[in-house]
Amino acid sequence: MRRGPRRSIATVCVSGTLDDKLSAAAAAGFDGIELFENDLVVSHRSPAEIRSRAAELGLTIDLYQPFRDFEAVPPERLRANLARAEQKFAVMAALGVDTMLVCSNVSPEAVDDDDLAAEQLALLADRAAAHGLRIAYEALAWGRHVSTWDRSWRIVRRAGHPALGLCIDSFHVLSREVPAAGIADVTPGKIFFLQLADAPYLRMDVLQWSRHHRLFPGQGAFDLPELMRAVLATGYDGPLSLEVFNDVFRQSDPRRTAVDGMRSLVALEHRIPPVPGREDLPLRRLPAAPRLRRHAFTEFSVDGRSGPQLRAALRGLGFAHTGQHRTKPVELWRQVACEIVLNSAVTHPGPSAISGFAVVSTDPGSSLRRAAALLAAAHPNERGAGEAELAAVTAPDGTNVFLTGPDDDWNADFLDTGEAPGPGAGLRGTDHLGLTQPFDHFDEAGLFYRTVLGLADVAAEEYAAPFGMMRSRAVADSARGVRLALTVALLRRGTWAPAVVDPQHVAFGTDDIVATAAAIGAPVLPVPANYYADLAARFGLPDDLVATLRRYGILYDRDPAGGELLHLYTPVLGGRVFFEIVERRGGYDRFGEANAPVRMAAQRHHRLTAD
Ligand SMILES: O=C(O)c1ccc(O)c(O)c1
Ligand SMILES: [Mg+2]
């Protein structure tokens, strides 16, 4: 029985020199690599040494690429191109790689003549076959004359050479108009190689889009499971190979990028629909994502500065300090189903103060098995004798994600402080978490949270904020018990900005924000009068409503279907976090993104003018 498709990664996906890239690919569990010529050219290793290094690491070299501007050229250019190819065939033999990628010609010299292209590619395939090699022809989306997969297929079919086949690259296919479904009708055995990349939809030059903005499968907008189905329907049994050109990945830790890539492939394989006739190739499925019920506790790492501010704010919001951990400097604060843990013993590696959060899973064991299959790092939870086990994995931003069951008594480890929960302020539970992401790992985090917890995208937004352009991506489970709003600055911040890095936050839900606002004693963030003047004009709100909102510092948003969000914020606490209170009306399903710039400006003003 086969194990499922082989998984490969192009060396161009990750940062470093070839040695770094090979180690990273092997450590992440890939079976093979596509070797980019540039990585070979700058390597101190000979082709034979690269071959043995790869073998030592358990990696095969599945593709040599790219060979450019070959086909449909005048005779003297053809002679030169064939001579150039022979030199590469010799290198390939030393590397032990049998397939060469030929990209469609982008040169002005290329002739618009499919017969000529087919004839010359057949000649190249003949030369390759003499060395026991084969040619995979790829239509670059910006090829001079051949820029779509169907045209590259017509040429390959016309050439009719057994050593000539197609390279299907999901980016080039899905960035163009020709539907991918027709790939299923390509003659069995004629797809020699499959390259996988995702991307966001962008209206820009396709070459720039491809060279800078590709993402790993599941991180962009392309329908890759459907493309995979079409390719597998032809009987394709070569590697699933990631080929992602991305400016951020090129600068990130290659080991981490390779794990991100592997996670994307594991998740993609899980999403491929069953392909009739391909029972020979069992697809590996993940443990199903169990249903999530709700957010349980959120844990903050606190120090001497943030601790007192957080305690005062929680008290003001109607929380009571109900529990003290038996063995650790950890406090439990509670109001109905809102649970906050203040932990003086953990430090968070990122800029945030949310060190972890817990979700209630209907099957935490299955959640953990799924997380492990998706290469989530298990969080070593040190617990004392007799303490409850709280399983957790660590997200890319360093946040620990605890998975608790509906009946788990995780707070058995807390001794009653004797402090009675007060009347509270009407906060029902945690509505969402605002998790600001480190610049380099935004897409990685989105993929992690969605795949590991089984969440789906609910909103994506870009907006101009006082300290830069921001991007937000919100994910949630289908019943909206668990919502996460991930945000990031679109560019690395400038030099003065560290002081104003957007903090993380917890938003609590209420059914009556005006009553809650009247009940709470915590300092609510003052909102400028200009905001309310604009609000009245934008939404045509009645004067008395605007007056009420203004009186309590409540912000407002409305969706096109008439759903409404009323929400308020606290100032930033201890320089690191803040709280939000939200009331959703009429099915409002977003996060008040439009008000984020108002909040950021107000929080800065508050910081500069208070204390
Ligand atoms: O951007 C390029 O030139 C390029 C090269 C090789 C590929 O496989 C590809 O998809 C793009
Ligand atoms: Mg490609």
Automatic annotation (TrEMBL):
This is 3-dehydroshikimate dehydratase. Residues 23-265 form the Xylose isomerase-like TIM barrel domain. Its EC number is 4.2.1.118. SUPFAM superfamilies: Glyoxalase/Bleomycin resistance protein/Dihydroxybiphenyl dioxygenase, Xylose isomerase-like. Keywords: Dioxygenase, Lyase, Metal-binding, Oxidoreductase. One of its GO terms (biological process) is 3,4-dihydroxybenzoate biosynthetic process. It catalyses: 3-dehydroshikimate = 3,4-dihydroxybenzoate + H2O. Mg(2+) binds at residues 432, 505, 580. Catalyzes the conversion of 3-dehydroshikimate to protocatechuate (3,4-dihydroxybenzoate), a common intermediate of quinate and shikimate degradation pathways. Pathway: Aromatic compound metabolism; 3,4-dihydroxybenzoate biosynthesis.
